[in-house]
Fold these 4 entries.
Entry 1:
Amino acid sequence: MWIVLNQPEEKMKSPAVWIPLFLGVVGSTSQELQFTKNPTNLTVSQGNSARLQCAVQGLSEPEIFWMKDGEKLYSTDQMYINLDQDHWATFHSVKSVQQTDAGKYWCVAEFNGVSVSSAPAWINVEGVPHFVLEPQDVATLPSMPFNLSCEAVGPPEPVEVVWWVDGAPMGEPGPSKSVLPIPGVTQSIKFYCEAKNTRGISVSRTGTVHIKVPPEAPSAVQVIEVQQNNVTLSWTPGFTGHSALNACTIQVSQNSGEGVELPEYHVTVPPFQQLIGGLKCFSNYSARICCDNEVGNSPFSNWIAFQTLESVPTAAPFNLSFQLTDEQLTLSWGVLAQEQINGMLQGYRVQWDLGGESQEALQFRENTVNLSRGGRFSNATFRVSACTAVGCGPWSQPVLVLPVAASRSPAPRGHVWTALLVAVLTAIMLGLLLTVLVRRRGKEMQFGAVFEPVSPGTEPAVSFTATRSFNRQGAEISESTLESLGISDELKAKLQDVLVPERLLTLGHMLGKGEFGSVREAHLKMEDSSVQKVAVKVLKSDINSSGDIEQCLREAAYMKDFHHANVIQLIGVSLHRRPQQCLPVPMLILPFMKHGDLHTFLLMSRLGDDPFNLSLQMLVQFMLDIARGMEYLSGKNFIHRDLAARNCMLNENMTVCVADFGLSKKIYSGDYYRQGSASKLPVKWIALESLADNVYTSQSDVWAFGVTMWEIITRGQTPYPGVENSEIYEYLIKGGRLKQPPDCLDDIYDIMYSCWSPNPKTRPGFPFLIEQLEGLWAGLSPGPGKEELLYVNLGEGDGPFQEEPGRAVPWQCGGGQKEGEEDWLMVSSGAAGASGGDYRYIDPRHATGNYCQAGPCGPPPALQQEEAEEEETDSVINV
């Protein structure tokens, strides 16, 4: 006979304690899962032993547990017995029965997703009475009659009940169940009941009669979200006065100096949150709230002030007029009222048409402008609109500029012919110059242009223009191929069609560097001779092991097959040939990511020199983008193993792409990957089972996604503040998890907390996470699509719109941009701006101290040995 003793769950967590006595073979069974024996009712004297039994048929291994009063039991006395093939019996034993052991028991068997319950049985314990209904607290109006109830049972029976009110017995003992009528009270009192049988007396809990009163004023009134014409308020109710709140009243007052109060808003609660609409743009308001219950109203809360957002002007400038002379055109128009501007007036936009064709718009700060050479505007039509930082309003009525009334003397004909002759000569000279340039271009060879044409009879002169640099001290290095790397034939075949010749790449300045390499800005020459801006990950030149190179190139092979909007895609692979080195340096060509890695972006929103606001809707959109990318990867049987905000990139559309697959693995069979040797891993993002057993599944990526959600909602804070890397496993095994941030909604925290279940099978999958986040995102904003951060740049002068110095889009930091950095997130607090590739290693001085590297391709590599490398200070835990 085979027997399995189940250890309690807390002991099973330690391998040194859990010693299974049976090793079953999981397999399918053709028998129906059914109970052949159900537990029977027992009546036991207190202190004696009791044992319940049930048997189930249709199991190939024991998957039976006991339930008591709806709760699962974890008992050291539970035992399994194999009765026959696929037939098992189990027992639940209690050595010394107490009153707490009394209750309803039954068995539950689970197999292949099927769950079956046995018939229930009761354990009745003979002893002092046991309360099945204890007195409960009562909230009542003054002098209002009410009843108190109490019930206790044996065995043995009968049971008598005596009531105690305000420390004195009330009435005579009576049978259980007992109901005590109270005619009404005007102040709070205490009460309890005593139950007596032949075994002794039991005393119930002490209840309290509360007198209902009006509620207290709400607290923590705050603005959740403010828009152009509405605001969302939330508040925390005060003491409810021992009665449920019926509704709350919101008063909103416009702080315009007129004391105008808007109509009151009466809202049902909960939830304690309300959208207030019908507000004016760019206006100051104050709001306060009170709540009521059946007794009365609470006092109002303190006023909270807020300002609605800017909008475009609602009216067009009026009274557009002009004055025209040969030398100057003067335009002027009326100034709009403040309530028509809907914001801070940034300037005016002037559009003019001439001969039926629209000319380039002009921009001005003031409502009066002077344009030189007024004669050129004769018969032109002008219109004007006012602009705020959000955009421009409607156009004014067009005004036709009539020519000057006084006749002008015609220009001398000689001047006209002179100008025409100069124009013809200029065109001829330009044509000759273009001809010479074309001939020189046609003679360019691989290393430059040679042998310029000379006059007959003279020696040909050699003109050389270098198109590539080379070492004059030795032979030129030939183009590298995959054959020179010593990698597997399978990997060569996968990368052959994405191999890019090195001569097509022009490397720029370094964007980030780390222990194993660097990321550089680069320009890639395409087949149509156009140039594409890219980011290049380059393995450090002193890493010359073929195994390290192959592992790096495997990351490229993974990325080659990715085609998803939220997963970074490989553009190509190039090989940099090194003098006196056998193996070339691999370079991974990736899309240029304008806003760099998500972690740095979030940090700059809080800690940059010019912090900026990220709305909750945008943060949830970041989470949605990552979840969609991870759903795509898991659908391709791909485990990332290093999901974190630092490994997610932001493109120019503010779309997040999952990146950095240096630790990733493809699953070819089964649903898990086991790390074969000791590795350095990002422990604060690693799932509990991965830390314990080096086993990685899509469910372990879900755990990391929950940590990434926490990073996003905290704007880049380090997970588990105050917990060292070496302490993470012990912290998690004891049930510790990341705490809910102060400004994190309960719904968001519930989603991320579900990702940290100790049982991987109970964690949500990425499709379910997407569904939850989409519902949450839809509830944050009424409009479809992503939030757009709009920016209107109004410069000076009478030309087209030009960007002003010192102006930047909301997510850029600093006062301006240096030459050659127009597309980069500007950082002036020490952490470098990042774009494309893996930007965990933007600056080793700002390393988070939470990443433990598992391979040479995890961090971005560096190209030259002579570049100064600063060793990162990341803490490491060897698993």
Entry 2:
Amino acid sequence: MPQQHRTATGVLGGLLGFLGLSVAAGVLVTATVTPALAVTGIATNSTINVFDGLPDYLALDELAQKSNIYATDSAGNPQLLASFYQQNRIEVGWDQINQFVKDAAIAAEDPRYYEHGGVDLTGTIRAVAVSATGRDLQGGSSITQQYVKNVLVQKAEAITDEAKMKAAYEEATKTTPERKLKEMRFAIGLEKRYGKQDILRGYLNITGFGGRVYGIEAAANYYFNTTAANLTLEQAATLLAVVNNPSNLRFDQPENEVNGAADGYSKTKDRRDYILGKMLDEKKITQEQYDAAIVTVITPTITPSSTGCITAVNVSPGAGYFCDYVTRVFQNNPIFGATEDERWAAFNRGGYDVFTTLDLDLQYSAQTALDAYIPHASDQLDIGAVAVTVQPGTGRILAMAQNKDYASDEDTLALGSNYSAVNYNTDVDYGGSTGFQPGSTYKTFTLAEWLKEGHGLNEGVDGRKRSPWGTFKDSCADGGTVYAGSDWNPGNDEGGNGGQYTALQSTKQSINTGFIAMAKQLDLCGIRKTAESMGVHRADGGPLLQSPATVLGTNEVAPLSMATAFATFASGGTTCDPIAIDRVVKPDGTEIPVPAANCRVGLEANVAATANVALQATFNGGTTSSSRVGDGIPLIGKTGTTDNNEATWMSGASTQAATIVGVFNATGHVNLRRTYFDAGQVATIRHKIWPRIMATANAKFGGSAFGDPDPSLINGQSVQVPDVAGKTIEEAQKLLEDAGFGFENGGAGDSALPAGQAASTNPSGTVPKGSIVTVYTSNGLLGIVPDVSGAGTYDAAKAAIQGAGFANVGQKCAVDPAATTPKVTGVDPPAGTAARKDGKVTVTVSKTSC
């Protein structure tokens, strides 16, 4: 648009108005220097009233600086993962700024900086004269005034309420005499409290250099890949040239090149050369230095400071998701601020150094193990896979990996299904999904509740498949019970109709019907509360559900929750909230509070130690045998497979690391047992990934034996085996099963009871409740050899023995010189003993000679 010309009256009015401003500034300065003179000499001037109500001091807040997230490398040193900023700024001290920078700033912006008290009247009056000609109010601001304006802008931009922020920004930048007066007042107040060096350093740290680059250190890094301390003369002058008009003079954008790169950014160079001339005039540089600098072509080395978690993948594979999780902690946790906006603004502006729990060695192992066996995308299904490791006893997240490429912008996400912004390892509130069913991994909470209620590993239950299962206790439900529907008839992975199983057997072989039968003797609400006490919750934020079906793992939870639970077992019962941040350090070196792990007793130590006996047994011929590491470190573990094999899990721990590996349908319903990748059947790939990760964890962190189990929880409750002797086999079975024992028919055995009757049991006496009792029936072949010593003759003895059921009777002669007549003197087997009726009984007859 063509420039609008002002009328003579308008010009005169503007001139008079700004002359008033100039007088006011003079009064302000005079009042600062000689208060008495101001009061006695010119206090009646009405212009003084414009200062009424203006504060004379501007509080200096901390500058917005970029925050950095670090992991720990192999040597135990911090390794930068990612940086975050609204303003890319690194605040530096006076000695970290090259003298060329300081001299260029003063020569270009405020040559009388060291002579005035905050307001340069000469420059202000010159600006008034220029502005009165019709142009905008401009120029004349001292470095101190410019610093004040930048501080006010910073304060405005730090306001989280958008409407209030815009209003404050408008107030700090609007072109009015009132704003200039406010700057003057603040500038004078600032110089009364701070030295010139402090103010100049503050100005160089706060001022903008184009885009999101703020402060001389970040500018030196970005434009020339150097530091503020090492800038050359021409580089310093070039950067201070940008300050004059960052949008038009920044030299990192092609549109600011008049005739292309060869032009050397002529607009920026003109301003640079002007500054070099001023430095020469002020005798800050020699003629030789000026001559060399003036002919130097502006040659930037643009070095962007990346922002956001996308940069984390350049440091460690897959670390973008962990980085994203850390940022969600800052957004969600009230320890960092009252509202999410305040928390996020503080993180992006605070200049925090965030030292996290991530171990780069284990992270590398986890991600490379996933990548070795699971593709990032597949034509067969929307494949998802995760690995997450938590340190028992502390809650520190050591690794967090998944089979997708981290991305957060829509354009990248649209490139393919290998990209995802969803962190499958965690809850929806932390950038995760709504969770996945853990399948049989969830049975561990029934095992824990079983032991908490005083049952033992060697106690058995009737795990035969049936329908309906009937009523289950649920103290959280109306009426205290729930009914398993007649159509609910889960089977076992190995097929068959089930049988009598101990808790140890059910855990080792992951027997569905065994755990359902265990739950029948427990409280479903108690199982849920045990899971919650060990850190488990639904990933969608809702409460865990409890029903007969949930015993088999139908609650959708995040893998990180299950890692917390297995860390509880591994630590001997201590549950810690998962934490990703060890400490946060502010730019001044002080630390701010971080979320605590809130470690607590999640499971009684004797219960955890006894449960670990069963969870260790899974590696010895049980369902986790394929995940054995073989390095001698004791391990606990449990597998999980959901309905239709849509998700498979391998979960376990040493005393130093708890790792969850899952392979699943991220969306959709594809049977993993019917799906194959190059690494083999998808349902079994978990057993290739988990041991690789744990081998790394074991080598780095070691591991010790788990605690000693509680002997009372090995056998648990003991009861007397009923006496079934003389019962029919059907009567014996019913008697045992009614008493809670399992029944097995041992077949016929020698007994004196009538054939077909129950004769004996094994075991007998007092045994663990629910034990399998084998019943042996009588074959009717056992008899008691009668006492025939008084029979006299062999024939009488034979008749008596045959009368007792022994058909085969013989005799043996024994010489007795004293015998006058033959007489029976013995029998073999001895009288009164049990012997098979189909065996031979020999009668001894004594005679004088044989």
Entry 3:
Amino acid sequence: MDAGKKVLLDLFAGSLRFTVPVYQRRYSWGEAQCRQLWTDIVTAGRHPDRTHFTGSVVWMQDGGIRPDGRSLCLLIDGQQRLASVSLLLIALAEHARRHPDGLCFSADMIVDRGYLVDKYSDGDARYKLTLSGDDRAVLRNLTDRLVDPGRPVSGGADSNLERNLDLFRGWVGAIGDANVVWNGLQRLEVVSVTLDQGRDEPQLVFESMNSTGLDLETSDLVRNYMLMGCPVDEQAALYGDYWQPMERRLRGLSFDAFLHDWMVATLARPVPRGRAMYSEFKRHAADSLLPRMDRVRGLLSSMLEYSESYAAVRGAEGVGDAMVGHRLGSLRDLDATVADPLVLRMLAMWRHGRVDRDGLLRMLGDLESYLFRRMVCQVSSNGLNKLVPSLIGRLDGDASDNDIADDADGADPAESFAAMLLTETVRSTRMPADDEFRQALLGEDLYRPASRCKHLLAGLENRNHPKDPRDFRDYTIEHIMPQNAMAHAEWRGMLEDPDRFPLLVNGLGNLTLTAYNSELSDGSFTEKRNRMVGGYGNEYLSISREPREADRWDETAIRRRGERLATLALDVWPMPEAGGQALLEQRGHGQTGEHGNSAVDFAALCGRGILKSGDVLESGYAGVDATATVTGDGRIRLANGETFTSPSGAFRRARELATGEDMQVNGWVAWRLPDGRPLDSLRRNDGTASVRHAFWKGLYAYAATRSDFIEAYGDPSRRKPKETTWASFGIGSSYCHLDGIVSVRDGYVAVDMYFTDTARYARLYGMRDRVAGMLKDLGTVDWNDPDTDRKNRLLKIRHNADFNADMTDAYQWMVDTLLAMRRIRDLLD
């Protein structure tokens, strides 16, 4: 590597010819960056004793010096700056042609000195700077027109180069003395960094440069990382076959967002955003001993395939199936982008024949129900960042099990997915049941956010159009009883209690869709019903049946319509359905919320000494003869020396080596211990699960002897004990829930009251002295601050427990506390 200070214009005047490799991002400077360059040049031009440093230019010679003395060079960093200076030189030459007097430079001088083009050469040697992609032709046309102004114009107003050239033309024409600009260019300095081919690593140098201008996107870094290290003759092919089609398909979408979702969908684990995502990508890309070109093609091929699905998920392209497209549109309306990687994985399973069309539609429908119910019930989405990758991994595992099966009894992915949602019972990731969903529909202000409200009403209406869903983009939300009804005597007369107006007016029973919102406005109910255009009497929507037939629109009418639509919503967004076997297989998996089992990964098993260095794993997968060993740092080493952190990644590679097939496999099931047990058995028999199971079994048996508990909660003797860290106890309330908690590792049991209604929680918080008195013999109460920035609130009390001793004391404490908590809840009634 050789670096030194150099006048920028000297790079233009010499024998070097710069070519921008295909892996570099396109020319992307906008007005802000061009204006900063212009300001720096003008400032330097007005102060003859001053120079201005403007960053670095990094390049590497591509081959030797040509017979004509020209040196072709790959431009690693500095494209934006050199291209912008080229545009400024064109603008100066054009200005000099129009206004030659009084200038210390001319158009002929700029052309003849070869700042932009050698008019006596052809090919790449003709041009000082050769850009990539569509920019190449545009810049060449601009410079050729400088030599021959009679050449036809090409490029177009859509070109960023053309737009910035027009900026420089305007600034040069307005400055008064263009000599200032020319003099400033002579004083613009850079650090010119020359890399030695075969010795310096361009990618590492590129990443370490702190250039001025626009920050690189993560996708820019990824593209450079994959293509920069490939042979030059391969770069153009890889760019044209893979990266360019992705760029065109994702035009208008965030490539970085796609890259993130692709990584989550394929790695089945949470992935950070920003520069940390690039580090994660490099670790993933390097976790293989495949030859570089094979590795790059594999990654690019996967990205290209997923880009098609991503464009469909984000609505930029169709998916080739009307009903699947409708389902994707419904999910898109929810704006729950955290679930997009899961949808991408579902579409990949469909495209590869691992789930049929009906199964895909069922999974997409269940996912919409899960997300929408949580939104309506105001369940925080914080837990979804961990749940989504977990669901992807479990789907892959079940699909792999199905692939392993020798008969038709293998797991159905759609059935498994339904079971996953039904058994995800922890607080932050649970799916609200029918009673909670219905209560929220009838008891909440549903008008805001408007996007959720419109999704609700459109979904209810389209229940009657299953084969031809209607498009309601041109419709708006209509309040049948208007929002300013209290200003009109006729509307006030329809209210039994004016204090209930705020909830009534924004409640489900009073909301509908219309294309004539401004026409209906705030008229009386009779006027709105009888209006010839847009009136309820002429409305065809099934959800507007009641106002079409009613004579009055009072509290009773609103309540009855709300009840009907809430019942209909339970059918539109139903709870998933799954058979007993699927539920049994999924129970206990993936509990990622506050009370869930901590995920036990491979490194954790090694750290606890359950697996030791040198332990051997064997394939239990038909047709794959493979072994692996456990390393001292908690990884899996295949026979060929490749190491992996996850069993699934290791077995996927082992299968590829043995069969040539690259397919996701659940390594926890496929790898076997020497005694024939699946590796997953070590994870499932961690020890704490069996203690939790014994605790709940003992608690239910003890509670069944307490008549006061049976009266309050029913007979628990038939309740099936689980291995989870928590159990829910119903108290007939939609706004709060009681949970019993057992933490084996931390040595305590607890009971909490979990509020979804923050107003009621605030009321109870105001009675905290009274509550403390009711619980004083049971322990210290822990309250959430009622003003905390959260949607939910928690009242919790805990009790130390020795799980190696007799648990009768813990059973008695939990039963007494559950009964006390129920009495505390009754204070609110």
Entry 4:
Amino acid sequence: MKPVASFLFVCWLLCLLASCESHFLTDESYRSRVAADLQQKQAMLRQDALFAPLADKSLTTYEREALSFLYAYMPLADITDYSPQFHLTNIRASRRAAEEMPWGKTIPEILFRHFVLPVRVNNEPLDSARVVFYRELKDRVRTLSLYDAILEVNHWCHEKAVYTPSDARTSSPLATVRTAYGRCGEESTLLVAALRSVGIPARQVYTPRWAHTDDNHAWVEAWADGQWYFLGACEPEPVLNLGWFNAPASRGMLMHTKVFGRYEGTEEVMSVTPNYTEINVISNYAPTAQATVTVTDLQGRPVAGAQVDFKLYNYAEFYTVASKQTAADGTCSLTAGCGDMLVWASKDGSFGFSKLSFGKQTDLRIVLDKTPASAYTLDLDVVPPVESAELPPVTAEQRAENSRRLAQEDSIRNAYVSTFPSPDAARRLATQYELDADIVSKLLVASRGNHRVIADFLSRLRSKASKKTGIHLLQQLSAKDLRDVTLDVLLENMLSHVRTTNAVHYRKYVLNPRVSHEQLTPYKTFFSQAISKEDEQAYLADPFRLAAWVSTNIRVEKDCNLGAPAISPAGVWQARVADAHSRDIFFVSMARSLGIPARIDEVTGKVQLITDEGAVDVELDSVSDSTPVSGAVSDISSASHSTKKPLPKNGKLIAGYRPIKALDNPKYYSHFTISKITPQGCLQLLNYDEGDADMGSGTTWNSLLKEGTALDAGNYLLVTGTRLASGAVLSRVSSFTIEPQKTTKTDLVMRKSKDDVQVIGTFNSESLFAPTMGRGGASPRQSLLQACGRGYFVVGILGVNQEPTNHALRDIAAYKAELEQWGRPLVLLFPDEAQAGKFIKESFPDMPSTIIYGIDTDNIAAQIADAMKLKNKSSLPIFIIADTFNRVVFVSQGYTIGLGEQLMKTVNGL
């Protein structure tokens, strides 16, 4: 071919390729659906400037379609709080992974757009994890099969983080890596982010609540070669579809996952929102059954559009795990595990409820025969599904290799953790900066991988006053805040205005940057520049003018931010639209930036101004600035009575309690809860302080109801429950009404099982074990009879560093005094010397002094499993109560919450 002709051919080819530029959305009908949803999102937000990045002419067709897909379904927080360049960088990174990873071309488009492209996993802050993780993982997995790559990525995650319980706020993936800690929601977010970074479809799966025990759990499903597999995040197993939660998952009643965007897969759809599709994947884990609920009025006519809440008993409340709307014929249906739920239907202030047993009932009729003021008491026996787990086969060689790798990964992570400040190093730093060594040591050690930020902040505290304020600021933060707070947030709060004479109010409600569970941002600096001096003086003179401005200028759209954490205060200011919770945080943040003490009440969720006389409710949905203004400016307490609405008309609740054996002081969330019945006929839980749930503190009958507590006038539901060792619950629900200026008296009743403690099996008390002499060492073997003497004893087989065992040990620690008073030994055994060497007693302080640690040299675990006919012999921990006449009266295996209480219930029944 002649040179000129060749040149013309190349030009023609380039033009042809340009005209055939690849699409992100190849399905034209779906592309049209995205365009329609994007237009609907723009109409809802009414802020065209937020969508200006989509008009960037430099974008390729692929990039514009991908960015349009993201913007069409993004929660508002992701639009306001992250730049278009951030989202574009992640689009390009996901495409690069698809091009460079060997499986990239095999991933179906529907899976790529919903389970690879999106950065958001659940409600975590977004970060650059996709780019960072890809650099670390690409060479590690590129030669593996897709199946093996999933396992390998999980091993990498285990190098980075280990389970620890924490508060409800979800850290970002990079923050989890930096701190080397994560609760299950954070570990699963980390693993999903890591898998997606190398182009593997992944999603977080969670059970909103377990049916057989209190708590919930989250894990991961990843797609390989045509099917979804599950795995425990940061808990590598030799094969997929295997985790410590196989058994509890088989007793689950509902498993969800939120799919970004409008998803048209094969799974059962729970709900479709403007941002995500929620699907039900319970059938992947447990036997299921479908039931249809029909809602009628008092005349028996079907009620369309009724809200039907499916509720599981968990943490002493009936918690909504699924919500449906009835169709024109008054029906809706749900597929769930084969156990009991409470179904609560409501519309226009009327409601009704009834127990539904999936697998036994296919239909349930609920009559809307109650109003919030109705009086009723009902006993409910709630039965969870039975265990039915089937474990995939694992060879001895696979198990040994996996154990070797886990030990290696532990050493890698521990080497990193060893770079965190020790208590002694922290004390030396405190001395250098002339700060209280005890306080600084606790703060720096708690900050873990964020210690450099905390140390940098401390180094900037020069004056005596700044040191005092800086320490007070750090003490207001949670342990998780210390692990991921940024320097700019700390520094700006040092400039907080002091406009109240109450030091406690200043520290908690002005200096403190945290309002709820939002990501901390430097909002005080932002508002100091955004609010004019004239407005500032007006708001200080009358804080209700600030409330009126927020009520007038911030439009609430309940669906605008679904699936995301709260929108930042700066983001709300920019968008002038928010969900109600982000709006409330915005108001409190503005108030605090002006030095006005404010909060969101943890119990009721109300927005409040804090005065010397007490908390003043702020109704942002109806507040007006028409109230006459008077009073001083510098201290809102001096102006509070002239500008605030009348204090709510409260009454008082006193509940009598007749102690039952082994329970003299019931605990909130463990034994009882209180919910307000809204005017619409729904339940709103009162969130009292749970304290350290693992160590026995928190709100109790004695502290809350024995002498009485103030409640807003209205109608309420008291729920109590006795959890049996089988997982079943003996519950009672009873209504009561609080009238203004009156005292309501009711009874808190804990139902008891009619059956006394029974012998449920046999176990040989002559079985041998080797007591440990120290970390990893063991003394000569002896029998349980020799170690414990005649009488009852507890034997537990531990799964070291596994979440179920950690929960069990903390539950036992919570009952230290009671178990020591009982006085009988608790023999806690490790499966082998290697596991004994990994156990760190210091991680579980306040354990009963009656514990004997040992090594299970003679396979007591297998003996118990055989004698008690346990289906999954390898599932740990296992606990029994037995006596030296070889009688077993209690057994527990695997994941359960409240083990200490269950042990004591049995002990007190002997």
